[in-house]
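Quick question, first post here. What does this chain look like in 3D?
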Amino acid sequence: MSRTQTSVSVDIGGTFTDVVIERNRERHSMKILTTHQAPERGLLEGVSKLIEREGLSFSDFDVFLHGTTLATNAIIERRGARTALITTEGFRDTIEIGSESRHDQYDIFLRKAVPLVNRAWRFTASGRVDAHGQILQPFVPEDVHAIAERIAAQDIESVAISFIHAYANPSHEIQAREILSSRLPHLSISISSEVCPEVREYERTSTTCANAYVRPIMSGYLNRLEAELRHRGMTCSVLLMTSGGGLTTIRHAADFPIRLVESGPAGGAILAANIAAECGLDEILSFDMGGTTAKVCLIDDGRPLKSRTFEVDRTERFLKGSGLPVRIPVIEMVEIGAGGGSIASVDALGRLAVGPESASSEPGPAAYGRGGERPTVSDADLVLGRLDPDRFAGGSLQLNRNLAEQALIKHIGSRLDLDALTSAFGVSEMVEENMANASRVHAAEYGKDLRRRTMIAFGGAAPLHAARLAKKLGLSRVVVPRGAGVGSAIGFLQAPVAYEVVRSHHLRLNSEGILKVEALLAEMEKEARSIVSKAAGGRPLSLKRTAFMRYVGQGHDLQIDLPGKPVASAPGQSDTFVSMLSNSFEDAYKSIFGRALSNHPIEVLTWTVTATVDPDDRTIPFESPSDRPEPVGTARLYDPDAGSLVKAPIYWRSSLPSGFTVDGPTIIAEQETSTVVTAGFALTVHDQGHLVLTAKTANSAARG
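> Answer (accepted):
Ran it through. C-alpha cells below.
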C-alpha cells in the first residue's frame, strides 16, 4: 500500500465501532455505537459520516480493512447456526470427553465448557484411516446418505466433518462433503482436513465444529457487507484481520471465520509493536481496554508472543482448559471482561465485583441515557472526573452524571454504605486490580518480568486507567500513542497480508525423513502463495517455514524456524540441514528448560508455511504545534495518588507540541479518549506525538 492510497479501517467491538480513514499522510477517525442486531448497519453509518465529513465517497477507497468480534460473540452467546457433526464410528462423544483433564483438580462443582453440537446432532460413519494415511476400513457412502436424510429432517444449517486422522488422508472427508453437497446444496459444510489439518483429535474436532457453528452467520454478514459496499460505489479490495496478525481476503474469511475470533485484539498488538519500534522499546506490555474487554499482550523485540491454541467461552475467566479449544494461529494475550461497559455489583457476600458481564452498547452504561440502569466502569470514570460529559466519543454522545451517580448509589452505595464518589473509586480500583492480576498471571506463565517493561495503552478506556494500573504493576513508564482511542483499527492499517498453512506429518528427525517432507512443504507453499497473492496487489511476498518439534516420548512441542528450504538429494546437504534444525531445537529447549537431552532422538509432528506481504511504512508524520498550549478547562478529578479530589487542568491533545511537559494531576483530552495523568507521573510529548508518562520517583511506581 503506497502512501498516496486512501484506506479505510473498521473495528467492530462490543460497545463501539471504530472507523479510521488514512489519506495523504493524514488520519481521521470516528467512534460510533455498535449495532449488534445488524453490525454492518453501524459500520456503514460510521464510514458514511466520516467520508461525508472529509469530503470523500466510497469510490475513493483503495482498500477496506476490517476486524470484528462477531464470531467470538456468536460462540459465547450461543447464537450460531444449528450445527451437526459427522465423525468416525466410535468417536461420537470426542468433543464432550475432551482430553479428560480437569482445569481445577479439586473443584467438586467444576463446570466444563458445553460443546457447540449437542449429542442428538452428532452422527458417525464407517471408514477408517491410520496416522500415516493408510485406509484401514473403506468409506461407506450409504452411511452419509442416511445421515443426510436425518439432517434434512432436523433443519440443520451447518455441518462439521471430522474423521480420525483426516489430516493424513482427507479422502473420506472429501467424499462425505460431496455427498452432502449434492443432497443438501444449501448446507454449509466444514471439514477438518481444511479447517485444522493437525494431530490432536479433540482440538481438531472442536475447531472444526466452531468454524461450522459461526460460518453461516459470518459468511452471511460478510456477503451482506460486501454487497452493500459495492452498492454504495466501493470497488476496492476488502481484507479481513485474522487472529494471527495478518490480513486475508473476504472470501477466505467467509470460508474459515474461526480464524477471525481475535481479529480486533490482534490489530491492537500490531499497533503496540509498531509504537515500540518508533520509541526504541524492547520489552512491552500492551494494554488494550475498550468498552467490553481488556487485553494484555507481551511484546519482545517488536514481536508479540504467538500461539497455535486459543480458548473461547471459558467457564472460569483465568483458568486454562475451562473453555472450548480452538487450534488456529493467534497472537498470545490474556483477555478479561474489564471494559468501560463492565457492570459493577455487590455479591451475596457483600463484596464489590466488576464484570465480566457488560452493558455493551445496548442499553449501555447508565450515563448513556439509553435505558441502562446498572453501574459500569464508565459511570465510575464519569463520577471520578475522568470523562468530559460533553466531549465523550467526539461529542457524539452526551453523558449524564446524575444517572451515573444514581446507579452507583442504588446498586453499590446503598449496599455498602458509601457515597457516589467512594463507590466510583471502589469500582475503578476493582477493575484495575482485576487487570493487574491478569497481567501478573500472564507474565508468570511465560517467565517474564513485568517491572522492566513499558506499558503501551490504547483503546477507548485504557488511557483513563493506565497510570493507576502501571503503579499497581510497578511500571515506571506508560506510552499513549496517537489515535489511542481507535488503536486496533489503526493496527489493521499497519498489518501485513499473511496466511499460514499447517499440516501434521510425523517423522523422526533424520536425512531420510526430511527428504520425504520436501514435497509436502512445496505443496503448502503453493497454497499459501495462492491465498496471499490475491490480496498482495503485485507486491513481493516472503515465506517462513517452521516445525513443531519435541524429544521422542514427550507430550508437548516447540515451534522452531526451518533454516532455509529443505534440499533435495544433493550429497551431504540434507545431513547439514538436519544438523542445523537439531541445533536450533536444542538451543530453544535449553533456553526454556535449562538443558538439552544429549543423544536423545528428536521428532517433528507438524509443519507450517506462512506467506507474508509486508506493508509499506505507514508512519504518519507528527506536525508539532508551534503555539504554547494552554488548558482548555479544569476538572474536579479524584486522584488516587493524592487521595482526594483535585483541580486538574485539561489540555486538548492536538495543541501539545513535541517536548511539552507537565506534571500530574492533569487530563489530556482528545476525540476518542482521555489520558489521566495522576499525581505520581509526569507527562512528556514524544517526537512522534505519543504521550509518555514517567513515574516521578524511582519508588513511586512500586507503591500502590
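Residues 134 and 169 are 8 Å apart (CA to CA).
The longest helix spans residues 201-231.
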